[in-house]
User: Fold these one by one.
Assistant:
Number 1:
Amino acid sequence: MRRMAAGANRTGLIIVGLLCLIVGVAVLSISLGLAPALAPGLTPDGQLQPVAAVLALPFSAVIALVVAVLLVVIGIRWLAAQVPRKDSAKPLRMQEDARTGVTTVNANVIAAAVVDDLELTPEVVDAQAILRGTARSPELLLHVDVDERADIDAVVADISDRVTHNCSQALGVPLSAVGVEIGIARSRQRKQRSVQL
Amino acid sequence: MASSRGGLTIADRVIEKTASQILKGLPGVGGAKSGLFRFGSNADLDSRPSVDVTLSGRSCTLEVELGLAYPSPITEATESVRRRLSTDVEALTGVNVRQVDVTVKWLKPHTSGSGSSVRNLQ
């Protein structure tokens, strides 16, 4: 139902991996004595005076601070990207001719109507819906919690025949994709005390 | 000679109320029943939709916030709203309706509507 930041994580891991690889190769080349060819004086038993001299420069602390702030920002952005997102559709604009006016419907409004419709099915205990895509190519994702004694085939058939049909009818276009996730509600519903005939 | 008999001024609020009342009569179209200090307002097919008008000379643009019965086709329902407002508002007030922008705030299944709404939709 919700999207994780898989792509961003892969990109971040590739960057971190490449940095580690570069540092590893550099350390290995120093320890094997290959570095002097590129940087004279950089030997395993060499003095670290040139490095220390760079670190002792007056603006080194400022550079370190800027780098630290940059790393903090990157870290916070990465953490924020880990929060699962619904990625609902943008507000749908549904009009034949914009010159006479524009019709706008928020995707959450349609999702809420689908949830209300789903909960009319007797064995559905709880439901969630997300509408993605565009007004011309909408996609519907459903999560339905049913009673543990429910006839799941009947619930799926009801979703397929009635709920998706109603959503498609309201939108005026066929749904390009429908995803259904069924969960089992363990808690028993309160015992019914009366019946309306 | 007509100006010597006096002028007629129609306030924008009059057009808003007129448009809102026209929409109240449409089946499957509703507004929000306002609660105390706008808290606790709830969707109701028997309430009047909210209308905001922008006047420009003898023409106007209407911005409508409404709810619709679900699963009636949204495009058809809002086109019907647009046509009805264009003709009736002009007929009642003399102000030409140039555009009607509609925002659908809620969709409500038939069965959860009030009794009169269900009768209207049947």
Note: The mean pLDDT of chain A is 84.
Number 2:
Amino acid sequence: MGKQNKIYLILFALAVFSLPFFLRNNYHLMVLNISALNILVVIGLNLLMGFAGQISLGHAAFFGLGAYLSGILTTTYGFPIWPTVLLAMAFTAGVAFAIGIPTLRLEGHYLVMATLGFNVIVYIVMLQLEPVTGGPSGFAGIPRLAWSGFAFDSDRKVYYLLWAVSIGALLLSLNLIHSRVGRAMAALRQNEIAARCAGIDTEAYKVKIFVLSAVMASLAGSLYAHYITFISPGTFSFFYSLQVVTMVLVGGMGSLWGSVFGAFLLTLLPEALHAVKEYNVLVYGLILMGVLVFFPHGLLTGIAGIMRKREKDLPGGEERSRA
Amino acid sequence: MSLWLQIFQFTLSGLTTGSTYALVAIGFSLIHNATGIVNFAQGEFVMLGGMFMITFYTFLRLPMVLAFVLTICCVAAVGFLLERGPVNRARSKEILILVMVTVGASISIKGLSMMIWGKNPMTLPSFSGENPLLFLGAAIMPQSIWIFGITIFAVIALSYFFRGTMAGKAMRAVAASRRTALLSGIPVDRMILLSFSLSGALGAVAGIILTPMTTTSYDVGVMMGLKGFSAAILGGYGSMAGAVIGGLLLGVLESLGAGLVSSEYKDALAFLILLIVLFFKPTGILGKGSFKRV
């Protein structure tokens, strides 16, 4: 991780952790908490999309597996919370491994279809397996998170936990992409055949990244379940998978800071769109399309590109931008 | 009813829905062959087919044939606009980005339809009566026969188009190799446009013939698209014969599963089949493995 990234990360963490002092409204805190969880999912997904060059349209299912496994095991069967979260992550890893092994071996985007199919199956099981999952009316009464006597029982307390987790994930991911593994993945994304010729086991890397990104989604799901204490299948439908993919794309594939921005922006956007309730599906679709058509490398990169061009157009701008 | 008769009955109704999956799957293949992208708005074409038909036939009281033709034109125009607008204008020609552009288009179309036609499910009257006919002891709705007939007609017309006409041959050339087609003077750009319009038209046909049996609403597109997509994979992505076989097979398996095992898990079953195919024969039933030259 470069020095610049370290400074950004420290500044970002400071900004994030001082924000609650200025917020009085619990609803605002809740929206921010949800965006922290989305950031966690989106960073994982971006590792897969931006570095392994594969799309998953099933991250809602991994998110949901985390949520339902830890919800059901802790509530119905009385498992302790933290080990269950780890258990859910391990289980999701196994599932992702089973899906990844056959599909990532193939040329083309077979993973998209496999994950999409998997998402639909998981969703339907959540809906139909009523005695276990509570069916369409959802699953309530999930215990809150606690750490040796300290209960995370308010939006404000959970805020610090969730953001610490997602900043931690950001830190680890930034380290990862600047390591040997990261360089191997960058090679893989650029040209898979060349990467293989250079002795990189591209298949193994793709599977590992896919499993990692599913595990991150599962962790986010477990935290979500223990934070909101109520889960229902609607949250984990195919639409959420689409939303997180959109967040990655709006932030820019391969840019982890972009993912933070994309997840944040698109979590807040629907809140802003409440004013145009009837139109929000349409507006969401149009924004997605517009960003992709005009800023295929993400909003941040796109806007930065426009600024640079403006600067160049000004007299003497050329030298300045070179410096 | 004996078990065999039941199975026969389920197979028949499976073939009916399977026919419409086949039409959607062909639409996927057309666009995939011309551009390499997966068009996620394919299911929306089906939804629009039903909606436009209801508008023209039920609300404006146009004669059925005229409404049928107008609907096909309108949805083909939507396909046309999708290509001319977002897909063609996209700054990046990366497949991944274009696929996500069609996802955005799909959400936008859905949102717009919700505003125009509302949230309530709507339906069309059957083309010719509701009295079931008896065929070897199984009951068939007249609408099923329409669905079979029109699907078979569409498939035959398409085969003729691809083998017998210049435009069809040009489209096959583009599918085989875009660069070679361009070098031999085929207007690739226009062929891509044609593939989008044609997929729109096929989706419209599927929507029109299916709506009297299942009703429609603004949000049926996603599921329909996913099913057509699975059908295309099942048969072998990109092949027309594969799309038809995949569609019919998916319809029948789904119907048998719903009838004999559990109707709640009907949709899950379709995707379970998809996953199994991907694991054991990822190129589909008719697909051949391809080697990539370095």
Note: Chain A touches chain B through 46 residues (CB under 8 Å).
